[in-house]
Design goal:
It is built from eight helices and twelve strands. By secondary structure, it is of the alpha+beta class. Strand 2, helix 2 and strand 3 form a beta-alpha-beta unit. It binds magnesium ion. Magnesium ion binds next to helix 1.
Length: about 300
């Protein structure tokens, strides 16, 4: 960032030999969060996490963030301050300057739009379109924690420490970069809509199919004791995990930058997605995206 906030436009200088990455994501009240359910700090953190996660999925390096915020008159200054605190906390962690933005009054509710600009060595961005038959499918971290947390909030139940953690997702920037530098991923995407939906995006863009082994899918911890892990539906279809999904034919370590990496299946030449259960039974896997899963409107 050569010139940030304070002029008519920000001036960015992208290092030579690099392509520019640009991603934009909405965070909308009653669609992505509820004021009475999530603390403003968490909403701010997640707002930026969405953008950083997209940069991670390209194997890139974030350079600057831009925030446009529309607020109804009933939104308190305290809410805005806390929202920014959460956003800037994550920005600082990844050394991403907030280089500009805009605020306006909205007719109702809160709408935030985050733009993240990043860079990647020329021609090296990892796309969704590179997966090939025979390659393995990998996922970072654990899945389903965020969706199950939301389900608990909807039922008025406490989250507990295990699930609260998932409300402050860590964008996998270091993992994405590490993998890209070694030429490991042929295709990559971040899990924002849910495993089944995002895997389908890879399949469509790469013109391939996929087979997942149900037993291999790493599920988030929901608590202690019997119901220790989230249900399989949350892991398969729940959104907002912000983990990375990638394909590769190369050997992949079980941990990258301190984050677990798990092989969960393989890419096939035949189209469509299949789920193999513990007994080896093969079932069709349908993409039930986040939109479907959270039943939009009632959140
Ligand atoms: Mg994405």
């Amino acid at each position: 960032v050569v010139t940030g906030i304070g002029d008519d436009a920000a001036v960015l200088r992208i290092p030579s030999g690099h392509d520019v990455l640009v991603t934009t994501d909405f965070t909308i009240e009653n669609v992505h969060f509820r004021r009475e359910w999530q603390r403003p700090r968490v909403v701010g953190w997640r707002c930026l996490a969405r953008g950083l996660s997209d940069i991670a999925a390209m194997g890139g390096e974030p350079q600057a963030a831009f925030l446009s915020l529309a607020l109804a008159s009933d939104v308190s200054q305290r809410w805005v301050d806390e929202f920014l605190k959460g956003l800037l906390e994550l920005a600082k962690k990844h050394k991403v300057p907030l280089a500009g933005g805009d605020t306006a009054q909205s007719a109702s509710g809160i709408q935030a739009d985050i733009v993240v600009v990043g860079s990647v060595p020329t021609g090296k961005a990892v796309l969704r379109s590179g997966a090939k038959p025979g390659e393995s499918i990998y996922v970072t971290g654990e899945l389903g924690g965020s969706a199950m947390g939301l389900a608990r909030l909807r039922e008025g139940l406490p989250l507990g420490a295990e699930l609260s953690r998932h409300f402050r997702p860590e964008p996998r920037l270091e993992v994405g970069r590490w993998l890209r530098q070694r030429g490991i991923p042929s295709g990559m995407i971040d899990l924002s809509d849910g495993l089944s939906t995002d895997l389908e995006h890879i399949c469509e863009e790469s013109h391939v199919g996929a087979e997942l082994e149900m037993d291999a899918i790493p599920r988030a911890r929901a608590g202690r004791g019997k119901g220790r892990y989230v249900g399989m539906d949350y892991a398969l279809h729940g959104g907002d995990d912000y983990e990375l999904l990638f394909t590769s034919r190369r050997p992949v370590p079980s941990k990258v930058a301190g984050v677990a990496v798990t092989r969960i299946g393989r890419i096939t030449a035949s189209a469509g997605m299949r789920l193999i259960d513990a007994d080896g039974k093969v079932n069709r896997l349908e993409a039930h995206g986040w939109e479907h899963f959270r039943n939009l409107g009632s959140l």
